[in-house]
Protein backbone atom coordinates (compact mmCIF):
# COMPACT_ATOMS: atom_id res chain seq x y z
CA UNK A 1 0.00 0.00 0.00
CA UNK A 2 1.30 3.43 -0.93
CA UNK A 3 0.94 6.37 1.45
CA UNK A 4 0.61 10.00 0.37
CA UNK A 5 -0.22 13.21 2.17
CA UNK A 6 -2.38 14.56 -0.65
CA UNK A 7 -3.72 12.85 -3.78
CA UNK A 8 -5.18 14.94 -6.59
CA UNK A 9 -7.32 13.28 -9.23
CA UNK A 10 -6.93 14.94 -12.63
CA UNK A 11 -3.99 16.73 -14.26
CA UNK A 12 -6.02 19.55 -15.78
CA UNK A 13 -5.66 23.19 -14.81
CA UNK A 14 -7.29 22.75 -11.40
CA UNK A 15 -5.25 19.67 -10.54
CA UNK A 16 -1.87 21.01 -11.63
CA UNK A 17 -2.48 24.45 -10.11
CA UNK A 18 -3.43 22.84 -6.79
CA UNK A 19 -0.29 20.70 -6.85
CA UNK A 20 1.80 23.84 -7.51
CA UNK A 21 0.07 25.71 -4.67
CA UNK A 22 0.76 22.84 -2.26
CA UNK A 23 4.38 22.63 -3.38
CA UNK A 24 4.78 26.35 -2.69
CA UNK A 25 3.76 25.77 0.95
CA UNK A 26 5.96 22.72 1.39
CA UNK A 27 3.53 19.87 0.72
CA UNK A 28 4.05 17.19 -1.91
CA UNK A 29 0.97 15.97 -3.76
CA UNK A 30 0.55 13.01 -6.08
CA UNK A 31 -1.47 13.85 -9.20
CA UNK A 32 -3.25 10.90 -10.81
CA UNK A 33 -4.22 11.29 -14.47
CA UNK A 34 -5.96 8.66 -16.60
CA UNK A 35 -4.69 10.11 -19.89
CA UNK A 36 -1.27 9.34 -21.32
CA UNK A 37 -0.20 12.98 -21.14
CA UNK A 38 -1.37 16.49 -20.30
CA UNK A 39 -5.01 17.05 -21.25
CA UNK A 40 -5.08 19.95 -23.72
CA UNK A 41 -8.74 19.71 -24.74
CA UNK A 42 -9.68 23.11 -26.13
CA UNK A 43 -7.04 25.21 -27.84
CA UNK A 44 -7.32 28.39 -25.79
CA UNK A 45 -8.74 29.86 -22.61
CA UNK A 46 -9.44 33.34 -21.30
CA UNK A 47 -7.59 34.62 -18.25
CA UNK A 48 -9.18 37.70 -16.69
CA UNK A 49 -7.55 39.77 -13.92
CA UNK A 50 -8.65 37.37 -11.17
CA UNK A 51 -6.96 34.54 -13.05
CA UNK A 52 -3.72 36.51 -13.35
CA UNK A 53 -3.84 37.41 -9.64
CA UNK A 54 -4.05 33.67 -8.87
CA UNK A 55 -1.27 32.91 -11.36
CA UNK A 56 0.81 35.55 -9.60
CA UNK A 57 0.24 33.83 -6.26
CA UNK A 58 1.26 30.49 -7.80
CA UNK A 59 4.45 32.06 -9.16
CA UNK A 60 3.85 31.24 -12.83
CA UNK A 61 2.33 34.39 -14.34
CA UNK A 62 5.73 35.64 -15.55
CA UNK A 63 6.00 32.64 -17.88
CA UNK A 64 2.98 33.61 -19.95
CA UNK A 65 1.96 37.21 -19.44
CA UNK A 66 4.40 38.68 -21.96
CA UNK A 67 3.64 36.07 -24.62
CA UNK A 68 0.03 37.15 -25.16
CA UNK A 69 -1.51 40.44 -26.14
CA UNK A 70 -3.49 42.29 -23.47
CA UNK A 71 -7.12 42.95 -24.34
CA UNK A 72 -8.09 46.21 -22.68
CA UNK A 73 -11.58 46.69 -24.08
CA UNK A 74 -14.50 44.92 -25.67
CA UNK A 75 -16.97 46.15 -28.26
CA UNK A 76 -20.43 44.59 -28.11
CA UNK A 77 -22.43 45.15 -31.28
CA UNK A 78 -26.15 44.57 -31.68
CA UNK A 79 -26.25 43.23 -35.23
CA UNK A 80 -29.93 44.11 -35.68
CA UNK A 81 -29.64 47.77 -34.69
CA UNK A 82 -25.96 48.43 -35.39
CA UNK A 83 -25.52 49.92 -31.92
CA UNK A 84 -22.11 49.25 -30.33
CA UNK A 85 -21.24 49.45 -26.66
CA UNK A 86 -17.68 49.69 -25.32
CA UNK A 87 -16.62 47.84 -22.17
CA UNK A 88 -13.25 48.47 -20.50
CA UNK A 89 -11.17 45.71 -18.91
CA UNK A 90 -8.49 48.05 -17.57
CA UNK A 91 -9.88 48.59 -14.09
CA UNK A 92 -7.09 46.57 -12.50
CA UNK A 93 -4.93 47.29 -9.48
CA UNK A 94 -1.85 45.45 -10.74
CA UNK A 95 0.20 46.06 -13.85
CA UNK A 96 -0.67 43.65 -16.63
CA UNK A 97 -3.78 42.24 -14.95
CA UNK A 98 -6.16 42.52 -17.88
CA UNK A 99 -7.79 39.95 -20.11
CA UNK A 100 -5.45 37.79 -22.15
CA UNK A 101 -6.39 34.73 -24.18
CA UNK A 102 -3.69 32.06 -23.87
CA UNK A 103 -3.00 28.63 -25.30
CA UNK A 104 -4.36 26.02 -22.92
CA UNK A 105 -1.39 23.73 -23.54
CA UNK A 106 1.03 26.54 -22.66
CA UNK A 107 -0.65 27.07 -19.30
CA UNK A 108 -0.69 23.34 -18.52
CA UNK A 109 3.00 23.07 -19.39
CA UNK A 110 3.87 26.15 -17.33
CA UNK A 111 2.21 24.58 -14.29
CA UNK A 112 3.66 21.11 -14.89
CA UNK A 113 7.18 22.54 -15.15
CA UNK A 114 6.91 23.70 -11.54
CA UNK A 115 6.39 20.18 -10.24
CA UNK A 116 8.91 17.40 -9.54
CA UNK A 117 8.93 14.76 -12.29
CA UNK A 118 7.36 12.08 -10.10
CA UNK A 119 4.39 14.29 -9.13
CA UNK A 120 2.13 13.33 -12.05
CA UNK A 121 1.28 9.67 -12.62
CA UNK A 122 -0.15 9.33 -16.14
CA UNK A 123 -2.16 6.42 -17.58
CA UNK A 124 -3.56 5.70 -14.11
CA UNK A 125 -7.20 4.74 -13.73
CA UNK A 126 -8.98 4.39 -10.42
CA UNK A 127 -11.58 1.74 -9.70
CA UNK A 128 -12.92 2.83 -6.31
CA UNK A 129 -12.61 5.33 -3.48
CA UNK A 130 -13.49 4.59 0.11
CA UNK A 131 -12.79 6.20 3.46
CA UNK A 132 -11.52 4.72 6.69
CA UNK A 133 -12.09 6.25 10.10
CA UNK A 134 -8.94 7.27 11.95
CA UNK A 135 -8.68 9.14 15.25
CA UNK A 136 -11.83 11.21 14.92
CA UNK A 137 -11.29 11.84 11.23
CA UNK A 138 -10.75 9.72 8.14
CA UNK A 139 -8.29 8.84 5.43
CA UNK A 140 -9.01 8.06 1.78
CA UNK A 141 -8.22 4.67 0.26
CA UNK A 142 -7.90 4.93 -3.51
CA UNK A 143 -7.93 1.68 -5.43
CA UNK A 144 -6.24 1.77 -8.83
CA UNK A 145 -6.92 -0.42 -11.85
CA UNK A 146 -3.43 -1.97 -11.64
CA UNK A 147 -4.19 -3.22 -8.13
CA UNK A 148 -2.35 -0.47 -6.26
CA UNK A 149 -4.01 0.99 -3.18
CA UNK A 150 -3.08 4.54 -2.21
CA UNK A 151 -3.73 5.77 1.31
CA UNK A 152 -4.12 9.57 1.45
CA UNK A 153 -4.64 12.08 4.25
CA UNK A 154 -6.45 14.31 1.73
CA UNK A 155 -8.14 13.61 -1.60
CA UNK A 156 -8.93 16.45 -4.00
CA UNK A 157 -11.08 15.72 -7.04
CA UNK A 158 -10.11 17.82 -10.05
CA UNK A 159 -11.42 15.50 -12.77
CA UNK A 160 -13.69 18.02 -14.46
CA UNK A 161 -17.42 18.27 -15.08
CA UNK A 162 -18.07 14.53 -14.74
CA UNK A 163 -16.16 14.19 -11.48
CA UNK A 164 -16.44 10.85 -9.70
CA UNK A 165 -15.39 12.47 -6.42
CA UNK A 166 -18.14 15.11 -6.66
CA UNK A 167 -20.88 12.63 -7.47
CA UNK A 168 -19.96 9.54 -5.49
CA UNK A 169 -17.96 10.85 -2.54
CA UNK A 170 -19.68 14.18 -1.90
CA UNK A 171 -23.12 13.56 -3.37
CA UNK A 172 -23.20 16.71 -5.48
CA UNK A 173 -25.80 16.67 -8.23
CA UNK A 174 -24.79 15.80 -11.77
CA UNK A 175 -24.31 18.89 -13.99
CA UNK A 176 -27.22 19.62 -16.32
CA UNK A 177 -27.52 21.00 -19.83
CA UNK A 178 -28.16 24.75 -19.78
CA UNK A 179 -30.08 24.57 -23.06
CA UNK A 180 -27.29 26.34 -24.91
CA UNK A 181 -24.26 25.21 -26.89
CA UNK A 182 -20.90 26.67 -27.90
CA UNK A 183 -18.56 26.33 -30.86
CA UNK A 184 -14.96 27.43 -30.39
CA UNK A 185 -11.92 27.61 -32.62
CA UNK A 186 -8.49 29.14 -33.18
CA UNK A 187 -7.79 31.03 -36.40
CA UNK A 188 -4.25 31.47 -37.67
CA UNK A 189 -2.94 34.16 -40.03
CA UNK A 190 0.75 33.41 -40.75
CA UNK A 191 1.29 36.86 -42.26
CA UNK A 192 -0.56 38.59 -39.40
CA UNK A 193 -4.23 39.47 -38.99
CA UNK A 194 -3.66 43.22 -38.70
CA UNK A 195 -6.46 43.73 -36.16
CA UNK A 196 -6.50 45.71 -32.95
CA UNK A 197 -6.21 43.62 -29.81
CA UNK A 198 -9.81 44.20 -28.79
CA UNK A 199 -12.58 41.77 -27.92
CA UNK A 200 -15.31 41.96 -30.58
CA UNK A 201 -18.70 40.51 -29.74
CA UNK A 202 -21.91 40.36 -31.80
CA UNK A 203 -25.41 39.74 -30.47
CA UNK A 204 -28.47 39.07 -32.63
CA UNK A 205 -32.17 38.94 -31.92
CA UNK A 206 -32.13 35.39 -33.18
CA UNK A 207 -30.71 34.18 -29.86
CA UNK A 208 -27.14 33.95 -31.10
CA UNK A 209 -23.87 35.40 -29.80
CA UNK A 210 -20.51 35.36 -31.56
CA UNK A 211 -17.15 37.02 -31.20
CA UNK A 212 -13.39 36.91 -31.47
CA UNK A 213 -10.32 38.15 -29.60
CA UNK A 214 -6.61 38.05 -30.58
CA UNK A 215 -4.02 35.99 -28.70
CA UNK A 216 -1.19 37.70 -30.52
CA UNK A 217 -0.49 39.25 -33.93
CA UNK A 218 -1.13 35.99 -35.81
CA UNK A 219 -3.78 34.07 -33.89
CA UNK A 220 -7.37 34.79 -32.86
CA UNK A 221 -9.78 32.86 -30.69
CA UNK A 222 -13.38 32.84 -31.95
CA UNK A 223 -16.63 31.50 -30.57
CA UNK A 224 -20.30 31.10 -31.37
CA UNK A 225 -23.05 30.31 -28.86
CA UNK A 226 -26.75 29.75 -29.28
CA UNK A 227 -29.82 28.01 -27.98
CA UNK A 228 -30.20 24.29 -28.48
CA UNK A 229 -33.28 24.90 -30.62
CA UNK A 230 -31.10 26.58 -33.26
CA UNK A 231 -29.35 23.34 -34.11
CA UNK A 232 -32.19 20.89 -33.74
CA UNK A 233 -31.08 17.54 -32.46
CA UNK A 234 -27.30 17.86 -32.53
CA UNK A 235 -24.38 19.32 -34.40
CA UNK A 236 -21.87 17.15 -36.22
CA UNK A 237 -18.68 16.23 -34.38
CA UNK A 238 -16.54 16.58 -37.52
CA UNK A 239 -14.61 19.91 -37.22
CA UNK A 240 -14.84 20.50 -40.98
CA UNK A 241 -18.62 20.06 -40.89
CA UNK A 242 -18.88 22.34 -37.85
CA UNK A 243 -16.86 25.01 -39.63
CA UNK A 244 -19.13 24.77 -42.70
CA UNK A 245 -22.25 24.96 -40.54
CA UNK A 246 -20.97 28.10 -38.81
CA UNK A 247 -20.14 29.81 -42.10
CA UNK A 248 -23.20 28.74 -44.10
CA UNK A 249 -25.88 28.82 -41.44
CA UNK A 250 -24.89 31.00 -38.51
CA UNK A 251 -22.58 33.69 -39.86
CA UNK A 252 -24.84 35.00 -42.63
CA UNK A 253 -25.97 38.05 -40.66
CA UNK A 254 -22.59 38.64 -38.99
CA UNK A 255 -19.81 40.90 -40.30
CA UNK A 256 -17.80 39.42 -43.18
CA UNK A 257 -14.67 39.65 -41.04
CA UNK A 258 -16.08 37.01 -38.70
CA UNK A 259 -16.55 34.59 -41.61
CA UNK A 260 -12.98 35.23 -42.78
CA UNK A 261 -11.67 34.43 -39.30
CA UNK A 262 -13.64 31.17 -39.13
CA UNK A 263 -12.34 30.23 -42.59
CA UNK A 264 -8.76 30.58 -41.32
CA UNK A 265 -9.33 28.17 -38.45
CA UNK A 266 -7.04 25.30 -37.60
CA UNK A 267 -9.56 22.45 -37.90
CA UNK A 268 -7.95 20.55 -35.03
CA UNK A 269 -9.02 23.36 -32.67
CA UNK A 270 -12.72 23.54 -33.62
CA UNK A 271 -15.03 22.02 -31.03
CA UNK A 272 -18.75 21.92 -30.38
CA UNK A 273 -20.24 21.14 -26.97
CA UNK A 274 -23.40 21.73 -24.95
CA UNK A 275 -22.99 24.16 -22.04
CA UNK A 276 -23.28 22.34 -18.73
CA UNK A 277 -23.63 23.81 -15.26
CA UNK A 278 -24.49 22.91 -11.70
CA UNK A 279 -27.27 24.73 -9.89
CA UNK A 280 -25.69 27.29 -7.53
CA UNK A 281 -27.85 26.17 -4.60
CA UNK A 282 -26.36 22.67 -4.91
CA UNK A 283 -23.00 24.17 -3.99
CA UNK A 284 -24.46 26.41 -1.27
CA UNK A 285 -26.38 23.62 0.47
CA UNK A 286 -24.48 20.55 -0.73
CA UNK A 287 -21.20 18.99 0.36
CA UNK A 288 -18.26 20.79 -1.20
CA UNK A 289 -16.06 18.90 1.26
CA UNK A 290 -16.63 15.88 3.44
CA UNK A 291 -14.03 14.77 5.94
CA UNK A 292 -10.72 14.65 4.12
CA UNK A 293 -12.23 14.83 0.62
CA UNK A 294 -13.05 17.90 -1.50
CA UNK A 295 -13.21 19.08 -5.11
CA UNK A 296 -11.86 21.99 -7.14
CA UNK A 297 -12.31 23.47 -10.60
CA UNK A 298 -15.11 22.15 -12.81
CA UNK A 299 -15.52 19.22 -10.46
CA UNK A 300 -16.98 21.70 -7.98
CA UNK A 301 -18.44 24.50 -10.07
CA UNK A 302 -19.15 23.62 -13.71
CA UNK A 303 -20.56 26.78 -15.30
CA UNK A 304 -21.41 28.20 -18.69
CA UNK A 305 -18.52 30.12 -20.30
CA UNK A 306 -20.46 33.38 -20.68
CA UNK A 307 -18.12 35.42 -18.45
CA UNK A 308 -14.98 33.34 -19.04
CA UNK A 309 -14.53 32.23 -15.44
CA UNK A 310 -14.20 28.43 -15.62
CA UNK A 311 -10.40 28.33 -15.57
CA UNK A 312 -10.00 31.53 -13.54
CA UNK A 313 -12.14 30.06 -10.76
CA UNK A 314 -10.10 26.84 -10.86
CA UNK A 315 -6.90 28.84 -10.32
CA UNK A 316 -8.56 30.66 -7.41
CA UNK A 317 -9.52 27.29 -5.88
CA UNK A 318 -5.91 26.16 -6.04
CA UNK A 319 -4.62 29.24 -4.23
CA UNK A 320 -7.25 29.02 -1.48
CA UNK A 321 -6.45 25.34 -0.96
CA UNK A 322 -2.78 26.27 -0.73
CA UNK A 323 -3.61 28.93 1.84
CA UNK A 324 -5.48 26.49 4.07
CA UNK A 325 -2.89 23.73 3.83
CA UNK A 326 -0.05 26.23 4.20
CA UNK A 327 -1.40 27.61 7.46
CA UNK A 328 -1.79 24.07 8.76
CA UNK A 329 1.67 22.94 7.63
CA UNK A 330 3.37 26.05 9.02
CA UNK A 331 2.18 25.17 12.51
CA UNK A 332 3.14 21.48 12.61
CA UNK A 333 5.36 20.75 9.56
CA UNK A 334 3.16 17.73 8.92
CA UNK A 335 -0.45 16.93 8.08
CA UNK A 336 -2.77 15.46 10.72
CA UNK A 337 -5.97 13.90 9.29
CA UNK A 338 -8.31 15.64 11.74
CA UNK A 339 -6.77 19.03 11.02
CA UNK A 340 -6.80 18.30 7.28
CA UNK A 341 -10.56 17.85 7.47
CA UNK A 342 -10.87 21.17 9.29
CA UNK A 343 -8.71 22.89 6.65
CA UNK A 344 -10.90 21.51 3.86
CA UNK A 345 -14.01 22.72 5.69
CA UNK A 346 -12.53 26.23 5.78
CA UNK A 347 -11.71 25.97 2.08
CA UNK A 348 -15.31 24.99 1.34
CA UNK A 349 -16.62 27.91 3.37
CA UNK A 350 -14.40 30.35 1.48
CA UNK A 351 -15.25 29.01 -1.98
CA UNK A 352 -18.92 28.04 -1.64
CA UNK A 353 -20.52 31.46 -2.12
CA UNK A 354 -17.90 32.68 -4.58
CA UNK A 355 -18.44 29.65 -6.81
CA UNK A 356 -22.23 29.82 -6.56
CA UNK A 357 -22.14 33.51 -7.48
CA UNK A 358 -19.98 32.85 -10.53
CA UNK A 359 -22.29 30.09 -11.75
CA UNK A 360 -25.38 32.28 -11.37
CA UNK A 361 -23.75 35.35 -12.91
CA UNK A 362 -22.45 33.40 -15.87
CA UNK A 363 -25.75 31.68 -16.57
CA UNK A 364 -27.80 34.87 -16.28
CA UNK A 365 -25.33 36.79 -18.43
CA UNK A 366 -25.70 34.27 -21.24
CA UNK A 367 -29.43 33.86 -20.79
CA UNK A 368 -30.24 37.56 -21.07
CA UNK A 369 -28.00 37.99 -24.13
CA UNK A 370 -29.58 35.03 -25.92
CA UNK A 371 -33.09 35.70 -24.73
CA UNK A 372 -34.67 36.42 -28.09
CA UNK A 373 -36.27 39.39 -29.80
CA UNK A 374 -39.36 40.01 -27.67
CA UNK A 375 -39.80 43.54 -26.32
CA UNK A 376 -39.32 42.42 -22.71
CA UNK A 377 -36.08 40.61 -23.54
CA UNK A 378 -34.83 43.63 -25.47
CA UNK A 379 -35.59 45.77 -22.41
CA UNK A 380 -33.79 43.33 -20.09
CA UNK A 381 -30.81 43.07 -22.41
CA UNK A 382 -30.37 46.63 -23.68
CA UNK A 383 -31.53 48.62 -20.66
CA UNK A 384 -31.35 46.52 -17.50
CA UNK A 385 -28.33 44.35 -18.33
CA UNK A 386 -26.04 46.44 -20.55
CA UNK A 387 -26.76 49.84 -19.00
CA UNK A 388 -27.34 48.98 -15.36
CA UNK A 389 -25.87 45.59 -14.49
CA UNK A 390 -23.00 44.90 -16.86
CA UNK A 391 -20.41 46.79 -14.81
CA UNK A 392 -21.53 44.85 -11.74
CA UNK A 393 -21.05 41.63 -13.68
CA UNK A 394 -17.51 42.71 -14.52
CA UNK A 395 -16.77 43.17 -10.81
CA UNK A 396 -16.34 39.41 -10.47
CA UNK A 397 -13.30 39.41 -12.77
CA UNK A 398 -11.37 41.80 -10.52
CA UNK A 399 -11.51 39.52 -7.49
CA UNK A 400 -8.17 38.84 -5.77
CA UNK A 401 -7.95 35.52 -3.93
CA UNK A 402 -4.80 36.58 -2.05
CA UNK A 403 -1.28 35.26 -1.64
CA UNK A 404 0.08 31.93 -0.46
CA UNK A 405 1.59 31.87 3.04
CA UNK A 406 5.39 31.83 3.23
CA UNK A 407 5.93 28.65 5.20
CA UNK A 408 9.72 28.97 5.45
CA UNK A 409 9.38 32.46 6.93
CA UNK A 410 6.85 31.19 9.44
CA UNK A 411 9.29 28.49 10.57
CA UNK A 412 12.14 30.95 10.86
CA UNK A 413 10.03 33.20 13.06
CA UNK A 414 9.10 30.24 15.27
CA UNK A 415 12.73 29.20 15.60
UniProtKB/TrEMBL annotation:
Pfam families: FAD_binding_3 (PF01494). Residues 5-330 form the FAD-binding domain. Coiled coil: none annotated. Transmembrane segments: none annotated. The keyword Oxidoreductase applies. Keywords: Monooxygenase, Oxidoreductase. Gene3D superfamilies: FAD/NAD(P)-binding domain. GO terms for molecular function: FAD binding; monooxygenase activity. Belongs to the 3-hydroxybenzoate 6-hydroxylase family. This is FAD-binding domain-containing protein.
